[in-house]
Design a protein that fits this description.
Helix content is 34%, strand content 21%. The longest helix is centred in the C-terminal third of the chain and has 18 residues. A hairpin with a 2-residue loop joins strand 1 and strand 2. The chain contains 16 helices and 20 strands. The strands form 5 sheets. Strands 17-14-16-15-19-20-18 form a 7-stranded antiparallel beta sheet, sandwiched between helices. It starts with a strand and ends in a 12-residue tail after the last helix. The N terminus is likely disordered. Helix 1 packs antiparallel against helix 3, helix 9 packs across helix 11 and helix 10 crosses helix 12. By secondary structure, it is α+β, with helices and mostly antiparallel strands. It has 4 domains: 105 residues, Uridine Diphospho-n-acetylenolpyruvylglucosamine Reductase, domain 2 (2-Layer Sandwich), CATH 3.30.43; 117 residues, Uridine Diphospho-n-acetylenolpyruvylglucosamine Reductase, domain 3, CATH 3.30.465.10; 105 residues, Alpha-Beta Plaits, CATH 3.30.70; 87 residues, Alpha-Beta Plaits. The chain binds flavin-adenine dinucleotide. Flavin-adenine dinucleotide binds next to strand 5, helix 5 and strand 12.
């Protein structure tokens, strides 16, 4: 019997064929891992969430081997879930516990053939390379890929999720810095979409690179990407500035942008609750009793640190409590917030963005709603205010049952304030997956859904690519 449809789309034949026999011969012994034979738990365990059951894994080592796997999957109706570093936060990187016949296609062996062109300030990079590895190579040319976050994702995963990160204010997101891609489609011919060019200007009509960026593995498997690198700054300087009122953060941001452009590299606003969580896991920062604080970073030519201090001290808001710190010490508390919160209870998180002027009202209204509706919970917000982004975390105390119904209620309350009241987005930078699927369905206009369906019909007519719970 051939492939069949289910609520998750095509999920394989009645007894889906296993990858072992056919694929092991073509990919070699390292190319296939079997659930019952090998330890595949790492491929089934999301960055956050409960471990899934063991899973079959295919590990192609070249674009041609990816095609071999996709051809096999289309022939047998097997769903292929691309996986990079498995650091995604919306549940789209690991198979759902209840889906049969899903095989993980890891890109971890797609590592050969990095090309950095210092004259062009670009790189062509295989999908399996990690961000840290790319940056190590780029640094030898005085360059870097300026996406900065608390995880170490793969290049393919960053393209598939359009990663943002803390320097987006200055350098943009992955979409802005991706010049081209190579991706294997699951169409009839198992075509390779190749837009791998490294020039920055290309005005030949619709941009198919952009179609793949942010597509979460549902339109093609990214095998290589052409990336726009940035020059490593000669100097970086950071300051933490305590504030009494979140509205002051927006005033400060606008003022620093006006007077420091283009040196401002990051502008992160952190509530006292979030900062305390970082302190509880070994990264304390004493900013008195300020309810809010801002981490500001400037990067550029030598001397830019002095400009930060001069500018911040003559700001229209009270910045007298500012503390200047070396970059690593300044960022350590910021990066420790998430693990600190996770230690303190069950976190129901949200990654939203709104117009920047709406951020103070957003965090105040969500804090009020949480206090009124779930008085036992704490609310901790922090994030990339420079981009209008903020992570809104509702933390329930240990021992409190937080089942799916509670999570849905919290999501509905928070997302309605961000999306319905303030015209924002329910996914600022983490992309889409089962964790926010219902809000994607709710917020996405019918014409967008129809166009996405048409794209999937063209690139993956059998619906074998990506997480089965993707919209
Ligand atoms: C501590 C922490 C901090 C984070 N901070 C940020 C942040 O500041 N900003 C931000 O944007 N994100 C952040 N993230 C989220 C995460 O790191 C990004 O989504 C990341 O870019 C995903 O890359 P990955 O290689 O881990 O992909 P995975 O998690 O393996 O996969 C993510 C999605 O991409 C698909 N995919 C992966 N590789 C490919 C490929 N080659 N071709 C097609 N599809 C593919 C998967 O199927 C899945 O849908 C953070 C995560 C953690 C754990």
């Amino acid at each position: 019997m051939g492939p069949r449809r289910s609520t998750y789309g095509i999920i394989g034949s009645v007894r889906p064929p296993r990858p072992a026999d056919q694929l092991a011969a073509e990919l070699g012994p390292q190319g296939v891992l079997l659930a019952e034979r090998d330890d595949t738990s790492g491929y089934a365990t999301p960055a956050r969430g409960v471990p899934g059951r063991p899973v079959d894994v295919v590990r192609p080592a070249s674009t041609e081997e990816v095609r071999t796997v996709v051809r096999w999957a289309t022939q047998h109706g097997i769903r292929l879930l691309p996986q990079g570093a498995n650091s995604g936060l919306v549940g789209a990187s690991t198979p759902p516990p209840d889906a049969e016949g899903v095989v993980v296609l890891t890109t971890e062996r797609l590592r050969e053939g990095v090309r950095i062109d210092p004259a062009d300030r670009t790189a062509v990079v295989p999908a399996g390379l990690r961000l840290s590895e790319l940056n190590e190579l780029a640094a030898t040319h005085g360059l870097w890929f300026p996406i900065d976050l608390g995880a170490d994702p793969s290049v393919g995963g960053m393209v598939a999720t359009n990663t943002g990160g803390a320097r987006m204010l200055r350098h943009g997101d992955v979409r802005r810095r991706t010049l081209g891609v190579e991706a294997v489609l699951a169409d009839e011919g198992v075509s390779v979409l190749d837009t791998l060019r490294t020039y920055r200007k290309d005005n030949r009509g619709v941009d198919l690179t952009d179609m793949i960026v942010g597509s979460s593995g549902a339109l093609g498997i990214v095998t290589r990407a052409a990336l726009d690198l940035a020059v490593l700054p000669a100097e970086t300087a950071c300051a933490w500035i305590p504030l009494r009122d979140p509205a002051d953060a927006v005033t400060l941001l606008v003022d620093l942008e006006a007077r420091l452009d283009p040196l401002l590299a990051a502008f992160e606003v952190v509530s006292a609750t979030a900062l305390a969580a970082a302190g509880a896991v070994g990264h304390p920062l004493d900013l008195g009793d300020a309810p809010w604080s801002v981490l500001v970073e400037v990067a550029g030519p030598t001397g830019c640190g002095d400009r930060l201090v001069d500018t911040a001290l003559s700001s229209p808001v009270d910045t007298s409590g500012a503390v200047v710190l070396p970059q690593d010490r300044a960022w350590a508390p910021r990066h420790a917030i998430t693990s600190g919160l996770a230690r303190s209870g069950t976190v129901v998180g949200h990654d939203v963005a709104v117009p920047r002027a709406a951020l103070p009202a957003l965090v105040t209204e969500v804090a009020d709603t949480v206090r009124d509706t779930w008085p036992e919970a704490t609310f901790a917000d922090f994030g990339h205010w420079g981009d209008g982004g903020v992570h809104l975390n509702v933390v329930f105390p240990p021992g409190r049952t937080v089942d799916d119904a509670v999570v849905d209620e919290v999501h509905d309350a928070v997302f309605s304030i961000a999306v319905d009241r303030h015209g924002g987005t329910f996914s600022a930078e983490h992309g889409i997956g089962p964790a926010n699927r219902s809000w994607w369905l709710r917020c996405t206009p019918a014409v967008d859904v129809a166009l996405r369906t048409a794209l999937r019909d063209a690139c993956d007519p059998l619906r074998i690519l990506g997480h089965p719970g993707l919209p």
